[in-house]
């Protein structure tokens, strides 16, 4: 009886130690698997003249062969802007590009507001833009890249069971440049630069524990929050160029 | 104990087979649709003449070890040309007694692709090169036009190579369609036809030509993809 009790106590002690170890690793990693975000905004026009019912289109730049602005980021930004504003309509990128095909393809999209005038000169384009009430374009250029990785992990499986042991870490970096155009006036009215760096961890003690820093998502939230403030004209602490 | 071992071995075999299958070359039939272009219709009638080879085009990879074994987009490219030209001109489909102002004969000159495992980039890329011969109603060739298309798709979790190749090919076809829709009215032979027939076009050639110039200046060309793939394999 005493030996059974003793075995039970020892098992509980081991379980308690193991749980504390896992908890400590979890806390450490949660504290460190974070993203550092830096958002800069330049306002080129103070009063953007936003009217209820105006439409905004968030578009990604895809003209470079070297990088591709992730469609997932564009979608995330559109959702963030839609959630943060009550009075404007956000048109999804794929819907807009299809409706205005072939004028906003990777190869043909206007690179600056002056080129936009050439596109609007084409028959049917200005009318369709007006029917959708599109007054602002938000162009996003950039990407999230893996900039470092380290560590190793070994997984094995046998008759008695299996598991993984090791530790892996990797760093992702986001760099995005967002330009806001006023369609009616053919000019750029604001610019937002977003840099984000995050490190993810994967300790493995029998079971791998992925602790991921969602760098692209965090960059989206940072950029999206700034865009919401821009369209709400809430930017008292930001640089202003006149 | 024996049952557990057998179960474990079976699970390992399934994992092994799945792993082998995932490394195999992919076969794709391209599906998708290019949207209707927002362009002015030219006051011209025309027909598109497709060869059997064009309609049933299927690229079969001859080199071993590449990511794609076969891609079939004959129907997809026919749909592209039909959709673009049915908006650009009054397209005569099938047999008709009506005299067409011009005939368009498309030909696929080149198809190239790369996959992430070949280039170490996280992109699936497709390059297309078409030749369009435009023949007048006197059966004389009035234009010979080469159009290139480029499409790319980044890799994504839970996206199969087949889906990625399908997406990249659709983007390349869209690219070709965009150049056809914008560049066709600015072709000197077409402008000449319109002037001779006394029928003005609604599109504004000067600004469309400026957009086309910018577009072709940003061409991304696969000069020699095979060399690039071999170079990466040697590293």
What is the rounded distance between the termini of chain B?
Answer: 47 Å
How does the major sheet of chain B shape up? 5 strands, mixed
Tally of individual helices of chain B: 8
The averaged pLDDT of chain B comes out at 81
By helix and strand content of chain B, what is the structural category? Answer: alpha/beta
How are the strands ordered across the major sheet of chain B?
Answer: 5-2-6-7-8
Low-confidence stretches of chain B: 217-235
Q: What is the tally of helical segments of chain A?
A: 6
User: Quaternary arrangement of the chains shown?
Assistant: heterodimer
Number of strands of chain B: 8
Shape of chain A: elongated
What string, H for helix and E for strand, traces the elements of chain A in order?
A: HEEHEHHHEEEHE
Which residues of chain A form runs of ≥5 with pLDDT under 50? 235-242
Please state roughly what percent of the residues of chain A sit in beta strands, choosing from under 5%, 5-15%, 15-25%, 25-35%, 35-45% or over 45%: 35-45%
Q: Helicity level of chain A, as a percent range?
A: 25-40%
Structural Rg of chain A: 25 Å
Helical coverage of chain B, percent range = 40-55%
State the distance separating the first and last CA atoms of chain A.
Answer: 85 Å
**Strand sequence of the main sheet of chain A, in spatial order?**
3-2-4-5-6-1-7
**Arithmetic mean of pLDDT of chain A:** 82
Shape of chain B: elongated
Folded structure, characterized:
- The complex is a heterodimer of chains A (242) and B (235).
- Chain A starts with a helix and ends with a strand.
- A 7-stranded mixed β-sheet of chain A has the order 3-2-4-5-6-1-7.
- In chain A, 35% of the residues lie in helices and 37% in strands.
- In chain A, helix 2 crosses helix 6 (215-231).
- Chain A contains 6 helices and 7 strands.
- Chain B is of the alpha/beta class and 235 residues long.
- Chain B is built from 8 helices and 8 strands, in the order αββαββαββαββαααα.
- In chain B, strand 7 (123-136) and strand 8 (141-154) form a beta hairpin.
- In chain B, helix 3 runs parallel beside helix 5 (161-183).
- The N and C termini of chain B lie far apart (47 Å).
- The chains are: A alpha/beta (242), B alpha/beta (235).
- The interface between A and B is medium-sized, with 27 and 35 residues.
């Amino acid at each position: 009886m005493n030996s059974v009790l003793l075995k039970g106590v020892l098992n509980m002690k081991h379980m308690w130690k193991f749980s504390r170890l896992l908890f400590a690793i979890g806390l450490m990693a949660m504290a460190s698997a974070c993203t550092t975000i830096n958002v800069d905004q330049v306002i080129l026009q103070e009063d953007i003249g936003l009217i209820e019912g105006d439409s905004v289109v968030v578009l990604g730049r895809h003209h470079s062969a070297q990088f591709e602005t992730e469609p997932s980021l564009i979608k995330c930004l559109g959702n963030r802007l839609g959630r943060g504003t009550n009075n404007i309509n956000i048109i999804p990128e794929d819907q807009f590009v299809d409706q205005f095909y072939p004028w906003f393809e990777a190869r043909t999209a206007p690179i600056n507001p002056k080129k936009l005038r050439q596109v609007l000169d084409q028959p049917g384009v200005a009318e369709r833009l007006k029917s959708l009430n599109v007054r602002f374009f938000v162009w996003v250029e950039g990407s999230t890249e893996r900039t470092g990785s380290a560590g190793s992990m070994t997984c094995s499986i046998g008759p008695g069971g299996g598991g993984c042991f090791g530790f892996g870490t990797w760093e992702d970096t986001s760099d995005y440049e967002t330009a806001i155009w006023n369609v009616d006036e053919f000019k750029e009215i604001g610019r937002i630069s977003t840099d984000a760096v995050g490190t993810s961890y994967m300790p493995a003690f029998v079971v791998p524990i992925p602790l991921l820093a969602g760098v692209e998502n965090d960059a989206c939230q940072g950029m999206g929050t700034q865009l919401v403030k821009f369209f709400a004209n809430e930017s008292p602490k930001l640089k202003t160029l006149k | 104990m024996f049952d557990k071992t057998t179960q474990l071995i079976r699970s390992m075999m399934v994992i092994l087979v799945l792993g082998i299958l995932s490394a195999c070359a992919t076969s794709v039939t391209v599906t998708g649709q290019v949207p209707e272009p927002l362009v002015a219709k030219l006051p011209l009638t025309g027909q598109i003449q497709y060869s059997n080879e064009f309609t049933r085009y299927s690229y079969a990879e001859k080199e071993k070890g590449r990511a794609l074994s076969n891609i079939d987009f004959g129907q997809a490219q026919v749909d592209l040309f039909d959709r673009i030209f049915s908006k650009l001109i009054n397209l005569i489909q099938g047999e008709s007694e009506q005299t067409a102002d011009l005939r368009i004969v498309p030909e696929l000159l080149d198809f190239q692709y790369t996959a992430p495992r070949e280039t170490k980039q996280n992109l699936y890329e497709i390059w297309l090169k078409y030749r369009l011969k435009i023949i007048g109603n006197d059966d004389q060739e009035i234009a010979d036009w080469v159009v290139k298309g480029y499409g790319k798709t980044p890799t994504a979790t839970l996206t199969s190579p087949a889906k990625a190749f399908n997406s990249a090919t659709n983007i390349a076809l869209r690219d070709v369609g965009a150049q056809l829709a914008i560049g066709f009215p600015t072709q000197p032979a077409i402008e000449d036809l319109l002037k001779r027939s006394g029928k003005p076009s609604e599109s504004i050639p000067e600004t469309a030509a400026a957009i086309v110039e910018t577009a072709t200046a940003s061409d991304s060309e696969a000069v020699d993809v095979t060399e690039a793939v071999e170079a990466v394999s040697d590293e």
